[in-house]
Fold these 2 entries.
Entry 1:
Amino acid sequence: MKAEERAGEPRRTNLSSAVTAGTGVERGVWAAPGRVNLIGEHTDYCDGFVLPFALPQRTVVTAERLGRPEWSVTSTLTGETVTFDLSEPVTGWAAYVAAVVWALRDAGHDVPGARLHVDSDVPGGAGLSSSAALECAVLSALADLGGLDIPLAHRPKLAQRAENEYVGVPCGIMDQSASTLCREGHALFLDCRTMATEHVPLDLAGQGLAILVIDSRAPHQLADGEYAARRAACERAAALLGLPALRDAALADLSRLDDPLLVRRARHVVTENARVLETIALLREGRLREIGPLMTASHASMRDDFEITVPEVDEAVETALAAGAYGARMTGGGFGGCVLALVEAEKLDAVAEAVHTAFATRGFRPRPPSPPSRPRRPPPILKGRAPS
Ligand code: GLA
């Protein structure tokens, strides 16, 4: 990783130069994208490596400052308005907004009251990080409304803390980092221990390739205990091995674990970290097609060792491969959500059609495949507008 790309030295080119500490803007529009993870699943909370890229789909927050410590948030998706002042716990989708207010305050920031309006085309419940997109867009809005001086590099941890502590989902740092830091045409190589970043070129179209994102429509729910159980197993395995995290484990270490379940969980993390590094080495050399087998091996590891796949995503992967994909894997936390398939651009429709046919045969119901994904820069954190 290049020293200048360390997260401690953030670029702030997206931020309004008009916003300086203590003098926020009155109102504005901010946005943050969803993500897919190319490879590196359930490695983030093991201090490991991930490689997400931003989606074109994003959450947009229109906000204006209020003169009192109260937040009122309306969602286009639900039509609801929720008003809170943090004296009572907030639940449901608005909890993600309240969580950001809470985390900013808890970090010592003087968060301005605000009226916010949320709209989004990031599909919810599909493992595409709709929660992080909401958190990150709200965080940017409140930071600029309040003139809070929060470097971009510090924002993912704040948003993660909001989700961990307030919402109660023990997620890692990947999604909030992707939503905040990804750049157009690149995947984000993130070392989740040091938070060092490298923007790795991912020119799919330039090589005649595309990534098909298939929403399996199988329910995906991080808060249901399975995610937390995987995280706890990884932490237990590391503790038994006497290591700070599974990032520090080698395959040979795993023979020191007695519990076969912990061996499987740890083996997924150790091999997945290695696959991320191999993927990056190939991407740096422009050998995009060759990452396919690593994607497929990642899926097998999630299926057999980490045990987080479901029949719908396994079917989508197998069908995509049989239809000519170079590689395919589930992306995100697991138990449903989306599958990525790396395909020749000209085969995209044929692979999508094959998955539809296979799902119809099995009685599964996928959502229509999304348009081919190209890595996209998170939409600029749009300038807050001065009062007119
Ligand atoms: C979810 C979490 C992330 C990460 C992935 C699995 O998306 O929010 O932190 O753990 O699952 O890689």
Note: The longest strand covers residues 52-65.
Entry 2:
Amino acid sequence: MGEKISNLKKILSTSNQIIAFTGAGFSAESGISTFRGAGGLWSKYDPSIYANINYFNQDPTYYWNFFKDERYPVIKKAKPNDGHYALVKLEKQGKLYRIITQNIDGLHQIAGSSDVIELHGNTRKIFCMSCDKTYSIDDIYKRLKYELPPRCSCGGVLKPGTVLFGEPLPQYALDMAMLAAQNCDMCLVLGSSLVVYPAASIPRIAQKKGAVLVIINIDPTPLDDIANLVIHESASKILSRLIG
Ligand code: OAD
């Protein structure tokens, strides 16, 4: 492990155009469950029901119950962890160029990172599927006790601003992420299983374009074989040890 850490230190010191690619494992130390891996949400909830746009369109009450009982209470309580703050520091040092996240919890921005691309949206923003009017997450949460699914003043169904399976990623975010992948000199994957596409193509593209690929994730990922350095450890602990 000591050798891996000193390799990572060396890579960080020679890189000046770093992108961080974060996943659910990066928010684990903030108390938010991952989807896969030990105790992952998808072992309790079937994603084809609770995270699929076709199912949501048929019956949004499943999703909203999941949001009310499982997601909102956890996300509401969550605070950025040492890893989030380490990335803020790396940005201030002028080394971190952009964060590309699959997380929908907004914790990078709350920590103070200024350049965050959210590939899978943000659950703190609620919007109407008919007229696009937006609502505050806290106001909607209060209504969930007596109104399922919650509706807009126009009568349309409300939906959190997260991308569900079967929905396209926000095009602008995807374009910006692709551009960043093509222009970075290091791609630092932090807490992602790297199994969900198109997001997981970002580290591959970065490496193909010449960036050094480093993966810090507790469980093995499908890109471990091609990465320049792999550390199976807590991403926020390793980062805060090096940068914090
Ligand atoms: P996953 O839940 O698929 O993977 C999280 C990874 O984090 C696992 O491989 C764990 O081993 C690892 N892990 C857990 N704790 C960690 C820690 N403290 N430090 C480092 N690694 C840790 O999460 P994502 O890859 O983000 O999308 O999942 C991608 C997408 O799948 C999500 O955005 C979500 C989900 O379904 C949608 O819902 C569209």
Note: The first strand starts at residue 18 and ends at 22.
